[in-house]
Amino acid sequence: MHYELIFASDQDRIVINNLMQFYMYDFSEYLGFDVEEDGLFKEYPNLGDFWTETGDKVAYIVKKGEKYVGFVLVKTMDSQRNHFSIAEFFIMKKYRREGIGKAVAQELFSLYEGQWEVHQRENNKPAQKFWRKIIDEYTKGQFSERFENGRMIQNFKS
What we know:
Blueprint: E1 4-7, H1 13-31, E2 57-64, E3 67-78, E4 83-91, H2 100-111, E5 115-121, H3 125-139, E6 143-148, E7 151-157
């Protein structure tokens, strides 16, 4: 399993915007999304914020060889305290179960050392299982978990 986690430049914005359609499709079963009149899902709100000068939101593309396999959006919740969150995390179905998602998540946790918060929708049991397993392994069980506002949230330090 060889993959690359690539910091997304402004030129990569269109790729993430396009991949976002597949992400929204996957998520539609949990959020009830429907496509618009043009047959596409509504644009992800404020996606452009991940390419601003503030640097509190960053985007990554995930590639395997020359193929795009996903993306990750990371938010800095508090730069003074190194507090980070996964805003969105997507690996295309074809590439799931290859260990890419796990490797990408662990690489991100190591890239951004500090406090992390990862959350999943209450009804998205597969995502909860994925993140709980990854975080448990990464932290050797040193994480907390809570349910709040319709989301399961894991907190830990990297």
